[in-house]
Amino acid sequence: MVEATAPHHAEAETTSTGLSHRKLVMWAFLGSDCMFFGSLIATYLIYQGKSKVGPFPEEVFSIPVTSVSTFVLLMSSMSMVLAYAALTRGNVKSFRVWIFSTAILGMTFLAFQVFEFRDFANHEVEIDCTSVETANLTPLEQKLAAKCGEGDLKIVEQHGLTPRTNLFGTTFFTLTGFHGFHVTLGVIWLLSLGFLSFKGGVRPETNLDVDLAALYWHFVDVVWIIIFTVVYLYGVFPGI
Amino acid sequence: MTALSIPVPRRPVHPTGVWSWITTVDHKRIGILYGVTAFLMFVTGGIEALIMRAQLLQPEQDLVSPEVYNQLFTMHGTTMIFLAIMPLGAAFFNFMIPLQIGARDVAFPRLNAFSYWVFLAGAMILNFSWFLGGAPNAGWFAYAPITSTVFNPGHGIDYWVLSLLVLGIGSVAAGFNFVVTIINMRAPGMSLMRMPLFTWMTLLTSLLLILAFPVITVALIELLLDRLFGANFFNVAAGATPLLWQHLFWVFGHPEVYILILPAMGIVSEVIPTFSKKPLFGYPVVVLSGVIIGFMGWMVWSHHMFTVGLGPVANSVFALTTMAIAVPTGVKIFNWIATMWKGSIDFKSPMLFAVGFVWLFIIGGLSGVMHSSASSDAQQQDTYFVVAHIHYVLFGGSLMAIFSGIYYWWPKMTGRLMNETLGKINFWLMFISMNIAFFPMHFLGLNGMPRRIYTYDGSMGWDLWNAVSTAGAFALALSVVVFIVNALRSVRSGEIAGADPWDARTLEWSISSPPPEYNFEQIPTVHGRDPFWAQKREGVPTVPVAGGSGEEGGHGIHLPQPSYWPIVAAVGLFIGSYGLLYSPVSNFGLAAAAFGGAVTMISVYAWSFEPVNDPVTGTEEHTQH
Amino acid sequence: MTQHAQTQTGDGGAGTAHAGHPTPLTYFKVAMVLAAITAAEVGVFYIEGLGRGIIPVLAILSGIKFALVAMFYMHLRYDARIFSWFFVGGVLLAISVVMALLGLFQFFV
């Protein structure tokens, strides 16, 4: 049994390419998943700007907040790769630290998503009746402004964004929801590996198991890179 | 992974009986399961067709109501494509690919079993709809917005969506399995350009499967979210467009038709050389044509939408790409003909069906080229001309080739020969009646008969050809009965086949019929194409190189062990689907969805911890996953 | 693809005995570059007057991030080519189909 010295390649594969079946299938799966997310992104972009009622992206998105969650997910990729590197060097304890860190960062990302989704669902539109500048109002704000009557100081109405509200809500929540679902499955996978390592089920010679989880995790991060750019940054850029 | 202190149920150890089939991971058994189930679905779809043809025999009949008629054509199309042709192809992938490449099984045997059970689950979900409030009725392509709850309040469409989602999981899993198997498990010496053509076409089909199904999965999810949860993907009032559905569907749908035809082309590319006693003419070109077809198949999808109003630029682009894709298809046809040229042709049943395929596929291709012109398609779209085209390429094409494959590989799978006389009757009756059933549809279409109408007025001038077509359809059904008789007789008392009844070329014929459980006593070594011919005619041996891996050298052959988890996972998906369907309106549905999901999750975990080969039974853990 | 390849590189080169394998320091540096590019993207977002010019800028920046994660974290730079073909094939097909769909829906006019 090899301990914490040189990593041991235990899975000598007698395959045509010399590569592991499971690694090959994971890459094929990731290629396939590109088509899945591509279709969701296409749907989002096709319907972008076509919602008939608000709220619209620029009214609800907070680029600073989403930038933080993006950063968190990027850092989780780093901790993931360090977990794998630790394992192949034979350091199971260090592996454990890094993989639980990855899972925690992933859960943090999911918490941000939940926070964001709830925030959108509870979105309120507020208009200050005493100083209305009709030029810069969104359609919803305009509707509220029209309701300003004598003696009203301000009007607040709830106009939450849900999947049912408009095209933006439908496509946004579906795209980010399925991404979040992928992240959730990933977190479960990582936690499972972490707990398994306590029982000796994760060892340097079984590093392929972690490699596969890592590939999946990085892919999920990469998809978020696309979503953040296309949906958030491009989507609400005021110059377009 | 070695055994952990987590208690896991004992591995199943049933060598015989029903349980051995339920827990099997043997690719040959899974192939038979696929074949039998798919054939039953083929008969179901055929009955649905016969009812429609009976209804259309004469004008203004009312054998069935328009509502039932809509369900019939929807179910006929969906069943034939997803439950008959694709799984019949899968039956051959399963049984033959490991044999053709000299392997003992596929890369992921349990995933393979899972694919079959998921297929069965999807078939059940779709067909149970007949008895649960009505089958889907919006056509096999289910265009929005007729699929919305506004126009389709019952559950039929929901069953359609869920069954296709479930079937998609099975198909994609099988696609992954065969991609890895073909790339990673070939016998020593079998480079890609030495693989049998059927293996090549299976590889291309599997790549198409894993790339195309995600697109329809998204479309189906979007439709389901609309129907169950009030989303707006296809809600025109909210600003949506039904065109989104059409595009997403056909981005999948066109690669799907190549998924339906490439395996057929692969089968025919095996049969024709064998029965012409000549190698396939231009093997590299046939492979390359397949690759080009697979690649270009992504560039033509909007030819299904020429009449939607995409504009002259889009229409022209897709017309050109569609015309272009006819080229590699035509090239293959020339290669098959050239293979037969100056060959010593033996017109046994498999060869008859293969040559019939070539002829009928040419006709289907010609009507396809007529469709490729956007302007002429404007007249043909949504008429019986399209129905004629579809059936020439799918029946005259895919199905004829599948029958060729059945007759060809029947001896290998069962150890018995089919009766040649009955085979010839089967072929001629099928070939002639197929033409009687479908050729008149060209005329009907050009004379303006629309698709998907449950009856027609007697003054349209469509009476004669409808009557002829119906007669042909019933004769076609008779030919299928002939096949069934042939098959049953063969299984009960057919002549014993021996390993190589056709003097064939590829590795599956070098082992007994049916093959032993481990396929090859020793993994063969291949030195060129058509390795079995090389061995028989030139004495080129296919036995392994001396000093091989040692796994066979007196250690015994390790085979993947049976498992419960594939079927349990499929059952979880089955229950979960129904639960999901009822979840918006019932807590019980929600609970069922959660329960089904939990069953699937637990199965996945148990599956991961279960070694491929059980250390308890004393076989070594083998890394052939 | 002649003899069956009984090799020791079972999982496609996972161990540190492999030539050109990144060190943890490399990974950290990549992470910093990724963070910096993200900051740059957000920064660009706040530049007024860029108009549609932001599209190529964002595309290039996120493309670089994508490539860095794929090549280094997912190890494609050091692994068997066939993995790259599978992944890049899927990515290219997805991009092409998305672009074609957007074109058909007049996204670019």
Summed up, what is this model?
The complex is a heterotrimer of chains A (240), B (625) and C (109). Chain B is mainly alpha-helical.
Strand residues, percent of chain C: under 5%
How far apart lie the N and C ends of chain B? Answer: 12 Å
Q: Main beta sheet of chain C, described?
A: none
Helical proportion of chain B, percent range? 55-70%
| CATH classification class of the largest domain in chain B | Mainly Alpha
Domain unit count of chain B: 2
CATH superfamily of the largest domain in chain B: Cytochrome c oxidase-like, subunit I domain
Overall shape of chain C: it is flat
Report the total helices of chain C: 3
Tell me how many strands of chain B there are.
0
Task: Give an account of the 3D structure.
The complex is a heterotrimer of chains A (240), B (625) and C (109). Chain A has 7 helices and 3 strands; from the N terminus they run βααααβαβαα. With 240 residues, chain A is mainly alpha-helical. A two-stranded antiparallel sheet of chain A has the order 2-3. The longest helix of chain A is centred in the C-terminal third of the chain and has 32 residues, at 167-198. Chain A is elongated, with a radius of gyration of 23 Å. With 625 residues, chain B is mostly helical. Chain B folds into 2 domains: 1-22 and 562-613, no CATH class; 24-186 and 194-230 and 242-547, Cytochrome C Oxidase, Chain A (Up-down Bundle). With 109 residues, chain C is mostly helical. Chain C has 3 helices and 1 strand. Chain C has helices at 24-45, 54-73, 81-104, and one strand at residues 5-6. The termini of chain C are far apart. The model of chain C is unreliable at 1-18 (pLDDT under 50). At the A-C interface, β1, α1, α3 and α7 of A face β1, α1, α2 and α3 of C. β1 of chain A pairs antiparallel with β1 (5-6) of chain C, so a sheet runs across the interface.
